[in-house]
């Protein structure tokens, strides 16, 4: 049974007629040009937008779930994050435990170890570099041990090394009963790391399926208005823009 | 941290009960007052110093906590409790008592009662104007309502019936905890408990808001409902303290800055320490006011502003350095 099933979801002029499922253990990539509705879709699933249609978590409509219960299962890693106060890294990660109403030290330590930020637990988060902060935000999400992580362009502002690390962590999370929905611009990374892709265009689903089925030269031409060469024959898929 | 501040507050309260123009044995006076003895010591301690000390503590606690809550909610270290429009509304309400002689039955507590009502009306108008608010709208709406009530207050001053009413009003507005009785505490204490309780119930929201509205909401916290409760609580605290003691400036703005480093900058853990530190500061300031040479009394609100303004300038300077 699908972990999340989305039926005919619409959100004013941003999303229309979205039908989608998220399976357990899946890393689902959401791709599409700027303004296609990627963030809006994630915000609907996170319960931040008053959508039309249905989004069900294990068969239960998410808007009917009490906030804390929803938040324990679905966590959002927003595109941009900033702390208003000069909090310590440990306290930022502890924020992930808010839906649970505890500050479980072992889970906070575990999340810090996973993301490699353990050495800065007592440092101020605003003293860290952008890439280091990005890992702290991810640790915050991991500390809540959610079943589903909604990661909205988590790779923006990260160098190649950290991009790789973050993708490894998300891939590791999307196992067993847990899943990840990842909004991402880099089509090469999307094709390599995601189990399935959803290609959005102007608030509608253009295509959904395995990377090979979605990332065709015709689809890229139609949605991004660029000519691209697509090669799925090698171990790492290669999408190259022509001209 | 909280136990140390509580101890410091109790010590300040003891000093405040002890200090005065007449030298009186504190314990004897308190004992006689509790037993209803009609001695000079009982009157000085029980009827003058005790209400004054308790009022200074509660006003300070209310201002400190409301400042911490509003700064947390608006995620702005320069947010002042006066932002909600409640202070000006309370001042207008109290001023109307001097002008129109409202609530004669309430006696000396009439300005406080009218002030509370004024704060409530100003707050409701502000919330109505801000709508299902973003934080910037709360600031704008608060400013608009403050300006409106401020101009009405100016009009009241303009048309004061006689010079005595005018000077009484102006002195009252300068802020003080002297010449007030335990009946003022009957207004202030419930406001402190209810307002403080409302804010305390939303401390998790304040923590969640550190990373922004979106993150707070994604963690299952209700921003719309919670922010209204916080604003309501802060307005109750500020409105009641202004209504009872007039304008005691800068306490709500500065106290959170003083205690923030003690609680690792956490907006949820700052609430109680900010209330305690506010109580200590206002009580200390009042002790200084009483220690001044006799003659024209320096009003408590004037003293806190004189001390607070340079500190505020220093804070702005620190903030500025962050952006340069």
Structure summarized in a few sentences:
Chain A has helices at residues 38-45, 67-73, 89-94, 105-115, 130-143, 160-173, 187-193, 211-214, 217-224, and strands spanning 4-11, 15-22, 27-31, 52-57, 60-61, 74-77, 148-152, 179-183, 196-201, 204-209, 228-231, 238-241.
What is the name of the CATH architecture of chain B? Orthogonal Bundle
Instruction: Look at the structure and give the CATH class of chain B.
Output: Mainly Alpha
What's the shape of chain A? globular
User: What is the number of E strands of chain A?
Assistant: 12
Q: Structurally, how many domains make up the residues of chain B?
A: 1
Major β-sheet of chain B, in short?
A: none
What's the SSE pattern of chain B?
HHHHHHHHHHHHHH
What is the count of structural domains of chain A? 1
Shape of chain B: globular
Largest interface: A-B, 32 and 22 residues
CATH topology of chain A: Rossmann fold
Summed over residues and divided by their number, the pLDDT of chain B gives a mean of: 87
Pfam family, one (chain B): FecCD
Main location (chain B): membrane
Protein name (chain B): Iron ABC transporter permease
Subcellular location (chain B): Cell membrane
Pick out its properties.
heterodimer, A: 243 residues, alpha/beta, Rossmann fold, six-stranded mixed β-sheet, four-stranded antiparallel β-sheet, 9 helices, 12 strands, 33% helix, B: mainly alpha, 14 helices
Description:
Chain B: It is a multi-pass membrane protein. The complex is a heterodimer of chains A (243) and B (324). Helix content of chain A is 33%, strand content 26%. Chain A is an alpha/beta fold and 243 residues long. Chain A has one domain: P-loop containing nucleotide triphosphate hydrolases (Rossmann fold, 3-Layer(aba) Sandwich), CATH 3.40.50. In chain A, the strands form three sheets. A six-stranded mixed beta sheet of chain A has the order 6-7-8-3-9-10, sandwiched between helices. A four-stranded antiparallel beta sheet of chain A has the order 2-1-4-5, with helices on one face. In chain A, strands 11-12 form a two-stranded antiparallel sheet. The longest helix of chain A has 14 residues, at 130-143. The N and C termini of chain A lie far apart (44 Å). Helices cover 75% and strands 0% of the residues of chain B. Chain B has helices at residues 2-18, 26-34, 40-74, 86-100, 110-130, 135-158, 163-174, 182-201, 203-208, 213-218, 223-245, 251-259, 271-291, 300-323. In chain B, α1 packs parallel to α13, α3 packs parallel to α8 and α5 (110-130) runs antiparallel to α11 (223-245). The radius of gyration of chain B is 20 Å and the shape is globular. The two termini of chain B are 34 Å apart. The chains are: A alpha/beta (243), B mainly alpha (324). The interface between A and B is medium-sized, with 32 and 22 residues.
